[in-house]
């Protein structure tokens, strides 16, 4: 019998966080995303739930009291995203439901590490010691000068008290020379500090946008008795790259390629040449079922999951293979039909 068939089942759903390491930093912004793969699931509903917990009880599934997260952003119909401020220890999960049934993702445990320690955004900036402060007179540190839209970024202007008595941080667009003051508004938070050795101005930009591209300028003024008129200046340029949904790279096939191969050979089925910003992550499906990294079908992956290979082809390898590419901007898929 031949023809085209649509297989429906319960939707698969997973949860991803853009945190680095095992812990969330207190009072920092992160992005949590629920994703449902590119399979036929019918009418679909996706939502996010949370349950506060003590760190020692977070793994106890029976003790959770789940509540819906309401402040989420829907991305098309297969995923949703939450801009998350880490303030308490809790567990978060994603759920997806269609007419067949519902499934639940593994839980994401939000383990809070410390209150406002020496971490800024998702990047670690070492706090200067007394010796460091005595060596540098004026500096401007940026956590990531080539950042991507919706990242968090921290900029610190530092001036040595032995030479300067005032320091300020300014913004300059790419072309004009006019300096613009930076204020505590919307996504930007400015704090000023003073120690026995230094003056600092710290700017934290949450969910950076392409419009934040430009130069950030640190101006430091010496005492009046120094005879200096113009302040000392140091600046760094930030280039914010916009989010780009995964898409087929130049020169690659788009959809539904049919491949005929012989039995009993080692074969590379496909290269999933999807590109995007940030670099997408990849998953593979066969006939709408997720192919696990460890499987019993002689299928394995190379090139950071971009390439799918079969160790020795047989009839069980016939079917439709789908590569799913996912990043913060969205999801895209490519299909290959393999005939053995």
From TrEMBL:
<dbReference type="InterPro" id="IPR003598">
    <property type="entry name" value="Ig_sub2"/>
</dbReference>
<dbReference type="InterPro" id="IPR050958">
    <property type="entry name" value="Cell_Adh-Cytoskel_Orgn"/>
</dbReference>
<dbReference type="InterPro" id="IPR003599">
    <property type="entry name" value="Ig_sub"/>
</dbReference>
<keyword id="KW-0732">Signal</keyword>
<keyword id="KW-0675">Receptor</keyword>
<dbReference type="InterPro" id="IPR013783">
    <property type="entry name" value="Ig-like_fold"/>
</dbReference>
<keyword id="KW-0393">Immunoglobulin domain</keyword>
<dbReference type="InterPro" id="IPR036179">
    <property type="entry name" value="Ig-like_dom_sf"/>
</dbReference>
<dbReference type="InterPro" id="IPR007110">
    <property type="entry name" value="Ig-like_dom"/>
</dbReference>
<dbReference type="GO" id="GO:0005886">
    <property type="term" value="C:plasma membrane"/>
</dbReference>
<dbReference type="InterPro" id="IPR013098">
    <property type="entry name" value="Ig_I-set"/>
</dbReference>
<protein>
    <submittedName>
        <fullName>Vascular 3-like endothelial growth factor receptor</fullName>
    </submittedName>
</protein>
<keyword id="KW-1015">Disulfide bond</keyword>
<feature type="domain" description="Ig-like">
    <location>
        <begin position="126"/>
        <end position="235"/>
    </location>
</feature>
<dbReference type="GO" id="GO:0007156">
    <property type="term" value="P:homophilic cell adhesion via plasma membrane adhesion molecules"/>
</dbReference>
<feature type="domain" description="Ig-like">
    <location>
        <begin position="246"/>
        <end position="339"/>
    </location>
</feature>
<dbReference type="Pfam" id="PF07679">
    <property type="entry name" value="I-set"/>
</dbReference>
């Amino acid at each position: 019998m031949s023809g085209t068939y649509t297989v429906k089942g319960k939707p698969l759903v997973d949860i991803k966080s853009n945190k680095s390491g095992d812990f969330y930093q207190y009072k920092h912004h992160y992005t949590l995303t629920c994703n449902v793969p590119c399979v036929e699931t019918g009418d679909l509903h996706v939502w996010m739930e949370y349950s506060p917990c003590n760190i020692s009880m977070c793994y106890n599934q029976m003790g959770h009291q789940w509540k819906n997260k309401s402040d989420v952003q829907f991305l098309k119909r297969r995923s949703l995203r939450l801009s998350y401020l880490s303030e308490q220890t809790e567990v978060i999960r994603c759920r997806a439901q269609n007419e067949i049934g519902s499934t639940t993702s593994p839980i994401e445990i939000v383990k809070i590490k410390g209150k406002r320690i020496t971490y800024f955004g998702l990047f670690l900036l070492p706090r200067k010691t007394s010796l460091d402060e005595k060596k540098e007179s004026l500096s401007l540190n940026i956590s990531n000068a080539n950042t991507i839209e919706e990242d968090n970024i921290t900029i610190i202007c530092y001036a040595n008290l032995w030479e300067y008595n005032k320091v300020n941080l300014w913004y300059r667009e790419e072309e004009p020379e006019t300096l613009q003051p930076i204020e505590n508004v919307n996504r930007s938070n400015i704090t000023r500090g003073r120690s026995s050795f230094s003056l600092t101005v710290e700017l934290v930009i949450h969910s950076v946008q392409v419009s934040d591209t430009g130069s950030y300028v640190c101006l430091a003024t010496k005492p009046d008795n120094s005879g200096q008129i113009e302040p000392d200046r140091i600046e760094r340029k930030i280039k914010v790259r916009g989010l780009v949904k995964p898409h087929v790279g130049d020169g690659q096939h788009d959809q539904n390629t049919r491949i005929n191969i012989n039995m009993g050979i080692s074969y590379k089925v496909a290269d999933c040449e999807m590109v995007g910003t940030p670099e997408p992550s990849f998953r593979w499906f066969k006939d709408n079922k997720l192919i696990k990294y460890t499987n019993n079908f002689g299928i394995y992956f190379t090139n950071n999951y971009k390439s799918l290979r079969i160790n020795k082809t047989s009839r069980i390898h016939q079917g439709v293979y789908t590569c799913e590419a996912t990043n913060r901007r969205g999801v895209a898929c490519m299909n290959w039909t393999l005939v053995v």
